[in-house]
Amino acid sequence: MTTTTLPHCTPGPLHATLLAGSVPLFLGALLSDIAYYQSYQIQWSNFAAWLIAGALLSSGLALLFALANLIRAPRKAGRPLLYVLLLLATWVLGLVNAFEHAKDAWAVMPAGLVLSVVVTVLAMIATWAGLTRLRTEGEA
């Protein structure tokens, strides 16, 4: 019985740390938006804006690592490409969310809350895809 192993493109330690670090930041922003929606205390919206800024930094750097891995990969289709596209969608919608949170007071709602939900789910899916073994040579 012969088994062939396919080369994998998994994130390195720094890449994985940046990738996994964006999830709690986006989740914290979502929870802050929920607290703002329930309490009308403007500080929750400010806190969400800062958490989103940190998450954008973390996911943006993870996106750069993912692009470098995709460029080096022998096969540029399939899951590695899906992972990069998920990260890109997360970052772009996170940026839109940051712009939404730059508005004044209650103008953030409800779009900020909806965007926070979408971006948090996207960040979780991108992290799941990034931390699993990404095949670069054929699908098994």
Automatic annotation (TrEMBL):
Keywords: Membrane, Transmembrane, Transmembrane helix. Residues 13-131 form the DUF2231 domain. Pfam families: DUF2231 (PF09990). The chain crosses the membrane at residues 12-35, 47-68, 80-99, 105-131. It comes from the Bacteria. InterPro entries: DUF2231_TM, UCP029509. This is DUF2231 domain-containing protein. The lineage of its organism: Bacteria, Pseudomonadati, Pseudomonadota, Gammaproteobacteria, Pseudomonadales.
